[in-house]
Amino acid sequence: MSTIYLGEFEELMLTMVGILKEEAYGNAIVEEVKAQLERKVNLSAVHVTLYRLEDKGLLKSFMGGATNERGGRRKRYFELTSAGVKVLQSLQEQRMKLWKLVPELKFSI
Amino acid sequence: MHQPPKFIQSLLAKICPEYLWEGIAGDLEEQFYYDIEELGYKRAKQNYFWNAVKFIRPEILLRNKFKLKINNTIMITNYIKIAGRHMARRKLFTFINAFGLSIGLAFALLIYLYIQDEHSFDKFHANAERIYRVEEYAYRAWDPDPENPYIQSPWLQTPFAPTVKEELAEVEFAARFDTGEEYVVKSGKKIFTEPITFTDPDFFKMFSFPIVSGNQNEFLKEKHHAIITEAMAKKYFNDVDPLGATLLIDIDGEKEFEVVGVMQNPPANSSLYFDILVNQTHRFNYERSLANWSSFNTPTFVQLRKGADYAQFFDNLQGIRDKYMSERLARSKERYSIPDDVTQFEYHTTRLDNIHLNNNMYWHKVSDPQYSYILGALALLITIIAAINYISLALTTSTLRSTEVGVRKSIGASKNQLISQFAVESVVLVFVSLILGVLLMYLFLPTFNDFTGKAIELNFLNLLEIAGFAVLISLAIGLLAGAYPAFFLSSFSPTRVLKGGASTKVRAGIARPLVLLQFTLSTTLIISAFVMYQQMKYITTKDLGFKKDQVLVVPIQLGWTEEANLAVERVRNNLQNEPDIVSVAGTTSSFNRGWSRYGYEINGENKKAYVWAVDPSYINAMGIELLEGRNFSASIPSDTTALIVNEALVKDMGWDTPLDEYLNWREDTASLGYKVIGVVKDYHFRSLESEIEPMFLSMDKYEIGYYTTLLIKLKAGSLPGALDKVEEAFNESIPDKPFEYTFLDEDIQSQYASFERWMNIMGLATIFALLISGLGLFGLAGINVVNRMKEIGIRKVFGAPVSSIFILVNKQFVLMALIAFIIAAPLASYLMNNWWLGDFQFKIEMGWPIYVVSFLIGLTVALLTVTYHGIRAARLNPTSTLRYE
Fold first, then answer.
1. Contacting residues for A61 by C-beta, under 8 A, at least 6 apart
2. 3 state SS of B463
3. pLDDT of B69
4. Across the interface, which of B26, B51, B60 has its CB nearest the CB of A70?
5. What is the rounded CA–CA span in Å between residue B258 and residue A72?
6. Mean pLDDT, residues B64-84
7. Is 0.90 exceeded by the ipTM?
8. What is the distance between the alpha carbons of residues B862 and B755, in angstroms, rounded to a whole number?
9. B318-327, B619-628, B758-767: segment of lowest average pLDDT
10. CB A25 to CB B24 under 8 A?
11. How many CA atoms lie within 13 A of B456 on its CB side?
C-alpha cells in the first residue's frame, strides 16, 4: 500500500468519486468537473481512468437500477474502497506537508 | 424523439467489452440528451460521434480481446528462452534459416529502395503538381509509318513560352529549359568545358531547387547574369564566395557573366539537371528563332495557376497551334499530300512528376516503368522463395521436437499454447533475420547503386519507411511461414510420440512443389543472366567494321567555325613526326556523339542517309575498308564536293557502278549533285541496336559542318608518352581551350550502359535466388532423409553400400533439377527473345551451350546442397533408427 503513485488525472477522478459519493458515475463526474473546475474532460478518458483505478483496487463499481432517460440503460456507479480512501487521505497529508515546506509562500510582502 | 447515431453506436458495441458496454452506452446517451437541450440536435450528434470515437482506445480494446494476465507474460518469456535454446542447439539449421530469410529480406529492401527512388523523382518541387512539360506530336510527313505516325518530342519553338504566358490565362509561369550543350568556361587560370543551360527568370519561381546564396527574384533579370551550382562554385572559386565574381563563357564568342546566385546541386532524383544557368537570349540566333514557329529547338515548362482548369488549358494549347502554325501546316499538308483526316500537329503535356517514368520521350534520366515492376516481381519471388525455405526447414527439424511436444501435451499444454509457442519461435527467428537483413542491405547498397546507376542514400525519412516495410514483411513471413509448422507440430499425438519414439512422418506435401517452383525460377534466372552476359560480350567484341582500339577522342572546343578546321591542321602538323601517333583525323562528330541525317528525293522517292564531314585521314585512322574507288585527297581540289558512300547506300539506290554516279543530296539544288569517288564496306557507325543504314562521308565542311572532334590513332603500347605528346600539340595548336579526351572504345561501350546495369541486376538476383533455393533444397533433402530413416536403416542392415544409399537419397533431386530445367528453358528463351534481345538488331542465337551450362549450374547447386544429407544418411548408424522396432 505504501507505494501507489497516481497521475494527476487519476487523482482527480479518485477525488471526484469521493465528492460525488452515491452519485459517482461517468457522466456525473464529467459534469461535476465542469461545474467545480471549469474544465472539460473527455468521457472516454474518465471511463478508462475509472477502470484503471478499479484495477488498482482503489475503486469498485456496481450497476445501478434501470432508468428511463438513458435508453433504459443502467448506470455503472463507482465508490471508493478502503484502500482508495487511504490513498486519498495520504495524498492530502503529503500535499500539506510539502506545502508547509515552501518558504516563499509564507506571505512576506 | 431524437436518437443517437446508430452506426457508431453499433460499432462501439462490437469492440467494447460486454460487461462495460451498458455503463458506457448509457453515459454517452445521457450526454447526448443534455447536448440536445443545450446545443441542438446537430451539434449533439457530432459530439456523440466524437465522444464515441474516443472510446476506441487500447485500454478498452485490450480489455475486450486479450486480457493480459501476468501468467501469460511469464509463458512468453519462457517461449523466447526455449526458442533461444533450441536455436543454439541446432546452430546449422538456425543459421541456414536466418541467413536465407535475411538474404531474401535484404534483396526485397534494396528493390524497395529502388522503386521508392524511381517514384520519388521530381516530387520535391512544391509546385510539382502544377508544372507541366509541353511536348509536340508531329505527323511524320516525310516517312509515314502507320504503326507510329507521330514523332513525339519535348522540343518546342522558341516563341512558345513567351506567347503562352501572355495569351493563356491558365499559365502562371513559363520557362524554356535548354540544357546539355557544352561550352568553354573560364575563371582566372581555371578553364574547363561545362554544359550550359539556357533558361528564363521564371525558372526560379517554378522549381524548388534550394538557393544557397543570392536573391532568386533577381536571377537572370539581366542578360549578363549567371547562376551556378555549389559544385561549380567549388570548382571555379574554391571556398571563396562567388557572388559578384566573373565567369568567361565562350558562347558564340567569349562573354563575361556575373555570378548572381548559387543553387544546391540538383539531387539524384531530379529529371532536370544543370551546372550553370544563363539567360535564354544568349542562345545561338535567339532573335531569329524568336520569330520562328517552324523550328523546334528548346524544351519548355509551364506552371498553371492554382485552380486552373487543365482541360481548358489543353484546348487553348491547340488554339496556339491554330493561331501561329496553321499557314505552315497547310503548306506542308499540300506538299506531302497528307490526308485530310490526319492531325498534323498537337501540343501535349507531361506533368513534372511523371517525366521520369515517361520513356516515350528522350530526356535526362528517363526510365522504363517496366523495370520497377519487373524488379518488384523479382523481389517478391525471392521473398516467397525464402519463406518457402522457412517452412520446409521447420518441418525437417520438427521430428526432433516431437518428444518435447509430447511431454508438454501430457502435462496439460493446450493446442493453442503450443501454437503460440511455435509462433513466438518463428517471430523471434524472423526478427533475428530482419536485423541481419537490414545489415546486409546496408552492406550491399553501394554495390547496388553501382549496378543500377543510382545514388540512393539512407536518410532518416527513407530509413523510417524501410523500417516500416521491413517489419511488415517480416511479420507477414513470420506468421505465414510459421503457421504451418506450428499447426503441424501441435497436432502430434502425445501417446504416439511418447510411446513409439520419433516416428512421425513429415509431410513434404507442400514443400516439394514449392521447392520445384523455387528451382524453376532460379534456373530461369540463370539462363537469362547467361544470355545477357553472352549478348554483352557479343556487342563489345563484335567486329564493327572499324578499329576502335587505341583511338583518342578529343573535342576541339572551337564551335562550328572555320577556325576549328584550321586547328585540326595545326594539330596534325604538330604530331606529324611523332612515331607513337599513327594518324590524326578531324570529323563533325565522333561515333556516339550525335549524327546528322539528310533526306533527299530521287525520282520522286524519299531517301535518307547519315552523313559525316571527314578529312582524308579519317578512313585510315579508323581502319575502315575501302571496297571500290579511292579515298579523299587533300591535293585534288574537286574532292571537296566528292562523296564516299557505304554499301547500304549503294544498295538503297540500286546502283550497279557506283563510281559513275552522282548523289544529289541537297533537294534544292538543280545540278547533278556530288560525285561518288569511293565505296566503303558497311561499318557500325551507330550502336548495335540499329541496322547499318545508308551513309556517306564528305569533305564539304561548308555544307555539312566544321570539325568538332579529333580522332587520334595511337600506336599500340605507347599510351602514356603518346598522350603527353597529344596534349602538348593540342595546347600549342588550340591555346586557351581545355584538353579533354576519352577513348573511343570506352565511348562505344558506354552506349550499352543501361543494358549492362540491367545485366548486373539480373546477375545479383540470380545469385540471391540460387543461394536461397539452394537452402530450400537443403531443407527438402533433410525432410527426405528424415522420412526414410527406417528404410535406410533396414537397407544398411541388409548390407547396402554407402554409395547406393547416397544415390537413393539424391536421385530425386537430380530429377527435380531436370524438371525445373525443362520448365525453365522455354520460359527463359521466350522472355529473352521477346524482351531483352528484341532491342538489338545484332544479337546472339540462344544456342545449346547456354542451356547446357545453365543446366549444369543448376544441377551442381542441387547436388552440392543435398550432399550433406546424403552423406549423413549414408553414414547413419542403423541401431539409432531401428532401436524401437
1. A50, A54, A76, A77, A78, A79, B23
2. helix
3. 47
4. B26
5. 83
6. 66
7. no
8. 30
9. B758-767
10. no
11. 32
